[in-house]
Write a sequence for this structure.
């Protein structure tokens, strides 16, 4: 272990590093391993989407102008053309697309691949223009999983390319507070039943931007005995789903552990579009609208996370525990849980009767902390 690593208490193995450089082949493998992990596995699909959308808009511009040009390297006039389409489409995350395009421009190499001051100035101007007037980012409304579980649906997908057993899919997504991309990417080997099937552990990425992809383990015990949660148990949902994928058996020669936990009817991984479409279909089946008065979509890929935060907050789960369960590194859970944290105030007051002054002070201290975090979030949004 190097001196710096020892001083900082980090793990390090000089012998393993030497072994990686023992041959040209092993060094090449080490380089490929390093390049593969530059970005978290959960961001790969988003990065691919950002890069595929840019050339699509470039082609549209070519068709309108009657020319055929390569998408990269970028030019200032073409950057303005494409940014105009993003603005017309009201893309709120244009900066992500622009940064991905910048990275591809530089990675192309060769003549014209230098990122000049003129290009950077144009990129910044485009980001400001596309984002102007769009307001703050939309938060997906929470999915009412209790209403979904009461639907008693079959195991058939609700949309083309959607997940099998959509009700259990929604229950697991809500209780483990998963993004739609996380539950779609989850494999059978990522979950484990414990204690004769009365507990379930799910190996999850620490966050959507976790560069080390170390992951965390989150456990749920059976909640069938909890009042108000009958028929909506995450452990039972996992057990039923594992039985489904195990009983099928035929996965085109793939090991069972590598099969998606909630695959499509064809055994493939569910796409982001199909996952969101399934969420919207579930919402419609519970009798709720999926758009507001202006036609904007109300639900999305984070509806499991907001739904889990709302459900558990209403049931009295402490926000700090919700923060750990949802893998938030900040108190953003208060924003996700929304009005659910303000419910049950009468019960909170009743619960404080007969408590010591110290306990009441601690409660007030926590409320002050929540208020400070809320004020800070409001300031950041402004």
């Amino acid at each position: 272990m190097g001196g710096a690593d020892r001083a900082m208490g980090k793990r390090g193995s000089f012998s393993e590093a030497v072994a990686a450089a023992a041959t040209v082949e092993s060094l090449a493998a080490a380089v490929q391993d390093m390049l593969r992990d530059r970005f978290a596995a959960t961001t790969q699909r988003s990065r691919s989407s950002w890069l595929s959308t840019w050339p699509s808009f470039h082609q549209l511009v070519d068709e309108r102008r009657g020319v055929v040009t390569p998408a990269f390297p970028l030019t200032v006039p073409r950057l303005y053309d494409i940014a105009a389409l993003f603005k017309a489409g009201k893309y709120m995350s244009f900066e992500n697309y622009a940064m991905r395009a910048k990275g591809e421009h530089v990675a192309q190499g060769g003549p014209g691949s230098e990122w000049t001051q003129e290009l950077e100035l144009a990129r910044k101007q485009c980001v400001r223009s596309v984002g102007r007037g769009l307001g703050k980012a939309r938060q997906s409304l929470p999915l009412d999983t209790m209403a979904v579980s009461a639907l008693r649906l079959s195991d058939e997908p609700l949309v083309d390319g959607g997940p099998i057993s959509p009700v259990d899919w929604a229950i697991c997504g809500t209780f483990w507070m998963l993004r739609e991309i996380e539950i779609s990417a989850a494999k059978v080997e990522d979950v484990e039943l414990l204690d004769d099937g009365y507990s379930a552990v799910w190996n999850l990425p620490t966050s959507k931007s976790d560069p080390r992809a170390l992951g965390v383990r989150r456990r749920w015990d059976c909640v069938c005995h909890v009042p108000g949660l009958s028929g909506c148990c995450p452990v039972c949902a996992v057990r039923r789903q594992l039985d489904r994928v195990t009983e099928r058996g035929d996965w085109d020669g793939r090991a069972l552990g590598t099969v998606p936990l909630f695959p499509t009817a064809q055994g493939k991984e569910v796409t982001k579009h199909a996952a969101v479409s399934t969420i919207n279909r579930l919402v419609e089946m519970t009798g709720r609208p999926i758009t507001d008065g202006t036609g904007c979509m109300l639900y999305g890929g984070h509806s499991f996370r907001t739904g889990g935060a709302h459900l558990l907050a209403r049931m009295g789960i402490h926000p700090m525990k919700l923060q750990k369960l949802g893998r938030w590194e900040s108190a953003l859970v208060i924003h996700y849980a929304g009005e659910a944290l303000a419910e049950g105030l009468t019960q909170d007051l009743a619960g404080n009767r007969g408590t010591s002054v110290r306990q009441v002070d601690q409660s007030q201290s926590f409320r002050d902390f929540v208020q400070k975090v809320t004020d800070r979030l409001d300031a950041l949004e402004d």
Q: What stands out?
A: DSSP finds 17 helices and three strands in the chain. Strands lie at 191-194, 199-204, 216-221. The longest strand covers residues 199-204. The longest helix spans residues 357-381.
